[in-house]
Design a protein that fits this description.
This protein has 423 residues and is α/β, with parallel strands linked by helices. 45% of the residues lie in helices and 14% in strands. The strands form 2 sheets. Strands 10-9-8-7-11-12-13 form a 7-stranded mixed β-sheet, sandwiched between helices. Strands 1, 2, 3, 4, 5 and 6 form a 6-stranded mixed β-sheet that branches. Helix 3 packs across helix 14, helix 6 crosses helix 7 and helix 6 packs across helix 12. The N terminus is likely disordered. The protein binds glutamic acid. Glutamic acid binds next to helix 12.
Length: 423
């Protein structure tokens, strides 16, 4: 396993740093440490699907990593970006191992990637690419092997095509068991899956406020990233009375000191495709959003958004990691020194995979859950896991990230030992 081509602060490097520190704290033997850290399977495939209307071919690299399946079938989303690499997918798959373990669902960690720019694909082209991806990885996907879901650049529609592609290959209407989560509700998806990650982020922020004796309804919030996670977080936190003062996406940021009207901003993004130019706010730069005077900052865009260069400029009291690995280890150290309370990604954004688990069980049992049931179970699980991590951090005088990693990795080690070391 190399550190590859992701630059100095890649997801893989951050993930490796975090797990190596954990292995040291837990005093694991070298053999068990290797069993915990090294990915079980890393696959790279080249695909060449044909676009039917003009016979053109798309050429794309596809990656799939099953990091660890000790606690169950590997679970994790499909990332579609122009720069995604096997190393990035490896780091993200590792994060999924800790995330599923911490949030207490019987899954391991996996992830897959398609190197393409979804913004440049017409809907029919994206469908062709998604179906070609599905056929190429199908032998590595299944309810007992790896169960994909949406991630950056993929969505509910894409999951619908995956589900159809698999049942079509078998000549059946449905699949036996759950092959993919985050599907449209009509095709066996679960109500509330789209909102689950954002709702979970807000549940952990509310839990932090309770434990730190802070009042969420007085809060000023800045959100970096206005995709699925960022936009749902913004509306859910505004509903709790907090004031969303700054939001950004890749185009730039918008700011209003009295609070942005989140619903109008969502409408604006739907029509124009970007945050920039929103009439209800003042255009600001991406850096300004991170450096906004606020109580909570939610980095919900991509990895390594906060580095040693900008960490010192952050004013927030709480950072809630909506994205995976948004802080480099150096940034983490600086912010801890500045006494910022950080809700780590494997806890903060675990709501998505928790509700994916509900979808998996619903499909396996041919059941149907209501929105109230899903939201209730999500909120309870986020709160109880937050408490578990918070109490351990207090007891061991460590950070939330260290406490979360210690719990997650210990469970994986216990799983390895419970299974036994013989093949
Ligand atoms: N892509 C999401 C994540 O990073 C969800 C994964 C899933 O539901 O399997 O947590």
């Amino acid at each position: 396993m190399t550190n590859g081509n992701d630059g100095p602060s890649s997801v893989l490097q951050t993930a490796l740093w975090n797990v190596q520190q954990t292995v040291r704290r837990l005093k694991l033997t070298d053999d068990i440490a290797r069993r915990v850290i090294e990915p079980a399977e890393r696959i790279s495939i080249r695909i060449h699907p044909v676009i039917h209307d003009d016979g053109r071919m798309l050429h794309a690299d596809v990656f799939l990593v099953r990091h660890n399946d000790v606690l169950g079938p590997t679970k994790g989303g499909i990332r579609m970006t122009p720069t995604v690499s096997l190393d990035e997918i490896t780091g993200l798959a590792m994060e999924m191992t800790w995330k599923t373990s911490l949030i207490g669902v019987p899954f391991g960690g996996g992830k897959s990637g398609i190197r393409a720019d979804p913004a440049l694909l017409k809907p029919a082209e994206k469908e062709v690419l998604i179906r070609a991806f599905t056929r190429s990885v199908q032998r590595h996907v299944g309810p007992e092997i790896y169960v994909p879901a949406p991630d950056m650049g993929t969505n509910e529609n894409d999951m619908g095509h995956i589900r159809d592609c698999i049942s079509y290959s078998g000549g059946t209407s449905i699949t036996t068991g759950c092959f993919v989560t985050g599907k449209p509700v009509l095709l066996g998806g679960i109500v509330g899956r789209r909102e689950a990650t954002g709702y979970g982020v807000v549940s952990t922020i509310a839990a932090a406020c309770k434990h730190l004796n802070l009042n969420l309804s007085n809060f000023r919030v800045a959100i970096q990233g206005f995709g699925n996670v960022g936009s749902v977080t913004a509306s859910a936190i505004a509903e709790q009375g907090a004031c969303v003062v700054a939001v950004s996406d890749i185009s730039g940021g918008t700011f209003c000191k009295d609070g942005l009207n989140v619903q109008k901003l969502i409408e604006h993004v739907k029509t124009t495709g970007k945050v920039k130019g929103f009439a209800g706010g003042k255009d600001i730069s991406l850096d300004d959003v991170l450096e906004t005077e606020c109580d909570v900052l939610v980095p919900a865009a991509t990895h390594s958004a906060i580095t040693q260069k900008n960490a010192g400029l952050i004013h927030a009291k709480i950072i809630a990691e909506g994205a995976n690995a948004p802080l480099t280890p150096q940034a983490d150290d600086i912010l801890i020194d500045h006494k910022v309370f950080i809700i780590p990604d494997i806890l903060c954004n675990a709501g998505g995979v928790f509700v994916s688990y509900l979808e998996y069980t619903q499909e396996t049992q041919r059941d149907q859950m209501t929105r109230t049931e899903v939201e209730h179970r999500l909120n309870n699980r986020m709160k109880s896991t937050f408490e578990l991590v918070f109490n351990r951090a207090e007891k061991t005088r460590s950070t939330m990230r260290h406490a979360a990693m210690d719990i997650a990795v210990t469970r994986v080690v216990d799983g390895i030992l419970a299974r036994g070391l013989l093949p």
